[in-house]
Each structure stands twice: as C-alpha cells, then as structure tokens.
Design goal:
It is a single chain. It contains 13 helices and 18 strands. The protein is α/β, with parallel strands linked by helices. Helix 4 links the parallel strand 4 and strand 5. It is elongated, with a radius of gyration of 23 Å. The N and C termini lie far apart (about 45 Å). The chain binds NADP nicotinamide-adenine-dinucleotide phosphate (NAP). NADP nicotinamide-adenine-dinucleotide phosphate binds next to helix 1 and helix 11.
C-alpha cells in the first residue's frame, strides 16, 4: 500500500497497519508521500516528497489522504492510468473532480473506492453493493457535518451558540476556523458525492443552495422543541422528479429517523418507494475510525463499486451522468418573526401571510422573557419564492426581522 499523506488519517492508517498483527500479515506499506520528509525520521517505511517515485515502487493499492485538489487529483489520475486501484477519503477532490476521476476509473476498469469520504466511520455505501433494488433510492436526508450537529445539540440543551462553538474547539471537534463546517460548505461537498452515488447526479458544490447555522438561537431550538421536534444541520437531495439539493438547518419532528442522531454523530436516511427509510448513523470522522474504513476498502481494492445511476436505472453507464439544474421543491417552513420593541400579534401576522397564500399550521410565543417580542410559526408547504415575498411584505408592514428554516419530513407512511 502506498500512502499519499501521513497526517492525522495517514498516520492512523500506518499505526493500524503496523500495530495490528492481522494487518501486519495482510498489508505492507511501500512508502508515504508528505511535504516535509525531514520531520519523519524513524518511520519504518520510505517517506518521500516525490509522487512519481512512490508510484514507481509499484504498489498494489494507493491510499489518498492528502486532502485538497492538487496534487491529489494528478496523482490519483496517474495511479488509475497505471491500473493501480485508489482508495480516497478526500471529499473535496471527489466533489470537484468526480466526473473526471470516475470516468477514468470506469474507462480503465481500475477501482476508485471512497467509503471514507462521507460519514467516514460508518461503512454504508458497501451495504448497497450488488443490491440494485435496495439501491433504488429516490431521495435522502443526512447529517454530514459533526461539528454543526454537536453545536446545535448543545444549543438545544440550553448552551449559547458561541459557547457551544468554543466547547467544540476545546474538544477538538472544530478547527480554529470552523467556517466551512458552519456555512454548509463541508456538507455540500459530501452531498455531491451521495447524489452521484445514489442518484447519478453530477453536481458541483457551488450549485447547492446553502444556509449556515450561525443565525440560530437557543430560543429557536426551544421553540422547535415546543413544536415536538428539533433543528438539525441537514443535507438533502432528491432526483425522482426534478433534481433537488440543498444544505441548511432544518426542523424535523420527533419521529424523524435522524432525530436521535445527536452530538458529534452523523446519520443518513435513504428513502425509496420500495422500502421504509434505511438509516445509518455513527462517527462521521476521527482518524482511527476513518483508518478502519480505509483499510476495509484496501482489502476490497480490486472490487469496483458500481455507481448507482438514479431511480430504476439499473446498469446505466457513465454516459447517463449529466450535469443538472437543481431546483427547490415546496416545503413547510419554521419561521421566527421578531420585533425590536413590541409584541407581535399572531393573528395579524397570519392574516398578512395568508394574502400570499402562505398558511400557518402552528404558532408559538416564548414562554420566558428571553425573546418576549418574537413569534415562531410552522407553515404548510409552499414554494420558497412565495414565502420570501410574504415575509418581505411582513417585514415592511410590521418593521420586524424574520429567520426561516425548512421543515423536513419522511415520505413513508
Ligand atoms: N481527519 C479526519 O478525521 C478525516 C475523516 C474523513 C476524511 N478525512 C479526509 O482525509 C484527508 C486527509 O485528512 P487529514 O486530517 O489526515 O489531513 P492532514 O492531517 O492535514 O494530513 C495531510 C497529509 O498530506 C500531506 N500533504 C498535503 N499536501 C501535500 C503535498 N502537496 N505534497 C505532499 N504531501 C502533502 C501532508 O504532508 P506534511 O505532513 O508534510 O504536511 C500530511 O502528511 C482529507 O481529504 C480529509 O478531508 C479526514
């Protein structure tokens, strides 16, 4: 096995390979690629800074855990050209260069496996391998960013947003700059990989609508609780009708399969017309859990993992993958309306929204004095444009602020 990268994940792969008797018998590390070879004295395999030398040592498998696009992209392409199977945990690479890499993998018949790129500690893609009927997933909702889930779980239990972020940093769950976690970029990258795998969609992260979680307050989470649910950082995609994909905080009810996925955990709920929702959850990252998933992929390196091509399209080839336009289907909305000075009249708000054909299912006012001039609403499903127009009119008429979060429900009865 040639390791591209010997950072947190690469070192964990090396530790597991060298430290476990079974692994020692099964694998040999032929070498590792890093930037700074000087800092690697004492490592019991060659550590190099020249990728060509590493590929020339003719490894049977390449494990790519460099991160980023280049040089990872060029080295993975070179390995696939030479017929060397590649295992990667690099979501950014697959999200941005997936078309090119999977096309080459398919053309050369060289496997490119990526179980650790999404929900790294939970091997779930393999559960669908060779199972075309189970794979007829029509839409999915997922918690793909553990940092955001940890923060919202803390906020739901009464911690302020900034204190929850500080705690995530202290526990090592968040980088000093957590912006890519909080603004949905990390989850959008992972969603492109899932949408390709299960829906045959070719998406770039930039095509996916993204809302961050930083605008949410303790009172929003408390109110979501009063409505019988909570707010989770979701990534959703659908392709049975018009392709749809978005990332952002969403209100889910207590019976949603992702409701119990708390803290740093990740989860995915895959839905189809054939089965009730299939749910997988567990650690989304962590060097040791990721390394275990990677080594299982190494063991299966010579098996090609077929990319599923959308609902019902069993056996469709790569030509069926087309860049798509992403739409946003109508949904229910969880809305906070707040006035800087005065209490809002729920009936007046409902009246105004109804003139835009936006209909309210439930309202709630705060039970304490933390946000006395706020009002929360759950609407019936409507298009985003209609809701935006209604809230624009409300803000102008009542001189208030609004904050909206989608409502996500499973379709299974
Ligand atoms: N950390 C996790 O829990 C986790 C979980 C799932 C997936 N992943 C993914 O796994 C990948 C690696 O993550 P990580 O946390 O292990 O990253 P990391 O700690 O930053 O390690 C990156 C490694 O790649 C090497 N490297 C980077 N650029 C290079 C270049 N231009 N030339 C040669 N070597 C280079 C670095 O060399 P130096 O050591 O010399 O700097 C380092 O050894 C990422 O794609 C990440 O998204 C991580």
């Amino acid at each position: 096995v040639a390791l591209l990268g010997l950072g947190r994940v690469g070192s964990a792969v090396a530790r597991l390979t060298l430290g476990d008797a079974w692994c020692r018998a099964a694998f040999t590390i032929t070498g590792a690629l890093v930037r700074n070879t000087a800092a690697r004295a004492g490592v019991p395999f060659p550590v190099v800074s020249d990728a060509r030398a590493l590929l020339d040592s003719e490894p049977e498998v390449v494990v790519e855990v460099l991160g980023g696009i280049e040089p990872a992209r060029s080295i993975v392409l070179a390995a696939l050209e030479r017929g060397i199977p590649v295992i990667t945990a690099n979501k950014s690479l697959l999200a941005r260069c997936g078309d090119e890499l999977f096309d080459l993998s398919e053309r050369t018949g060289t496997p490119l496996r990526h179980e650790a790129a999404v929900i790294a500690g939970v091997p779930f893609l393999c559960a669908f391998s060779g199972r075309p009927f189970a794979s007829r997933v029509s839409h999915l909702s997922a918690i793909l960013n553990g940092t955001s889930n940890f923060i919202l779980t803390q906020v739901a239990s009464g911690t302020g947003f900034d204190a929850a972020l500080d705690l995530a940093r202290r526990l090592g769950y968040a980088e000093p700059d957590a912006s890519l976690d909080l603004d949905g970029t990390d989850a959008a990258e992972k969603l492109t990989i899932l949408a390709r795998h299960f829906g045959g969609l070719s998406l770039q992260p930039g095509q996916i609508a993204r809302d961050g979680i930083a605008r949410l307050t303790r009172e929003d989470l408390r109110c979501a609780g009063a409505f019988g649910g909570t707010i989770k950082p979701l990534a959703c995609a659908a392709w049975a009708d018009a392709p749809a994909a978005w990332v952002g905080p969403a209100f889910i009810r207590g019976d949603h399969p992702l409701f119990p996925v708390r803290g740093i955990a990740n989860g995915i709920c895959l839905e189809s017309r054939l089965t009730p929702p299939l749910v997988f959850s567990g650690p989304g990252a962590g060097p040791e859990a990721t390394a275990a998933t990677i080594l299982d992929d190494v063991l299966n390196a010579h098996r090609t993992e077929p990319v599923v091509r959308g609902t019902g399209a069993i056996g469709q080839t790569a030509e069926g993958l087309g860049r798509v336009t992403v739409s946003e289907p109508p949904t229910g909305w969880f809305v906070r309306v707040s006035h800087p000075a005065d209490r809002l009249d729920p009936l007046g708000v409902a009246d105004l929204l109804s003139t835009f054909d936006v209909w309210i299912q439930r309202t709630s006012t705060p039970s304490d004095t933390a946000a006395p001039n706020a009002l929360w609403l759950l609407t019936h499903p409507c298009e985003r444009a209609r809701l935006d127009a209604a809230l624009h009119a409300l803000r102008a008429a009542a001189r208030c602020d609004t904050c909206t979060v989608r409502v996500v429900e499973t379709t299974h009865e």
